[in-house]
């Protein structure tokens, strides 16, 4: 893995935090992320039309990417009764927050498979996070015409 | 049976009333000796956000499915899982979960495969418990490990494999997926992940009865007259029928299996857990597209 570019700091830290834990504790950490998912800014809460549904996730989750002054911000919303999906969205949102477009687009597509959650939540479920990251990157490309 | 059955009048009309408990009954029996409450959800973290006091968690995917081969865990592993959760062969197990007990019914069906005797569903599941404002806790229960001898898994009574379905063609099949999956316009439930079936449609002659029809708006099971209207009048099932139910990976059809067998009393009901993810990718099995059940081919391919 030495020839792959280094992960952005926040994503690397999240990865390390998960990998430092045993499988059961990883679920607790995912729950913490779930609880940290902020509510949508009001300007989006009133505009559900701006949000894109991640249909690959088992639960209704909607995302919206902003690029302001070259920096990426991901907003996401998912219901309380879907804590796993909220956790996935929260990890991606925190991990991408404030990255340059170039750095965000360089995040490996298989990042969700590398943070020790596959065995904790199952490969099937982790696909939802992979799709979330993929859709976020596609929105970034659309926003900047890349 | 270790713990008395729930005598609620609603359940008495069902073929096997001892397979259901109400939220009120459970609240009163949480501390009963010989009773273990198990939560089984679609969302692997939901239990951690709060659960019924004393309940243990069993995840349908990470606990009940073999991590390598597409099958349920071995009998050795199943026994180990139950020991860890304080369940012994004579324990009364009450299972509940999210989404109309979708995954709770799946867990119950797997318990049945392994021959656990007294396993029941909480009517209405999490949704009803919550709607009634009943207590949740974040506390992990202190479980005393129990003894569970390695059981024998019997795949012949409630489980059907692909060859069984081929041999069954001509007898009633119930496809419990959404109309869009049934008619072939998609291979996954709306808003669900792609699970890799190569072809879309349904098994010839299968009647489409989406699984959720068996649940009322509040998540509890419908009454016998309502269920009869759906399954006997609507799908044409008759007493004595030999029935196979299927969906995408066998989870939604576990719910229908529970309804047909335990609530309506059909004796011979099997769940085809390979379901569409197997059938829709298998070579030379017959498939019908469109909203009509279609005809069974004269020579079913073997």
Give a brief outline of the structure.
By secondary structure, chain A is mainly alpha-helical.
Written description of the protein model:
- The complex is a heterodimer of chains A (146) and B (302).
- With 146 residues, chain A is mainly alpha-helical.
- Chain A has a single domain (11-144), classed as Sufe protein. Chain: A.
- Chain A is 51% helix and 11% strand.
- Chain A is built from seven helices and three strands; from the N terminus they run H-H-H-E-E-E-H-H-H-H.
- Chain A has helices spanning 9-19, 23-36, 42-45, 83-96, 101-105, 118-121, 123-144, and strands spanning 52-53, 62-68, 71-77.
- In chain A, strands 1-2-3 form a three-stranded antiparallel beta sheet.
- In chain A, helix 1 (9-19) crosses helix 4, helix 2 (23-36) crosses helix 4 (83-96) and helix 4 crosses helix 7.
- The model of chain A has no long low-confidence stretch (mean pLDDT 89).
- Chain B is α/β, with parallel strands linked by helices.
- A five-stranded parallel beta sheet of chain B has the order 1-5-4-2-3. A five-stranded parallel beta sheet of chain B has the order 6-10-9-7-8.
- In chain B, helix 4 crosses helix 9.
- In chain B, 46% of the residues are buried.
- The chains are: A mainly alpha (146), B alpha/beta (302).
- Chain B: It catalyses: thiosulfate + hydrogen cyanide = thiocyanate + sulfite + 2 H(+).
- Chain B: InterPro entries: Rhodanese-like_dom, Rhodanese-like_dom_sf, Thiosulfate_sulfurtransferase, Thiosulphate_STrfase_CS.
- Chain B: This is Sulfurtransferase.
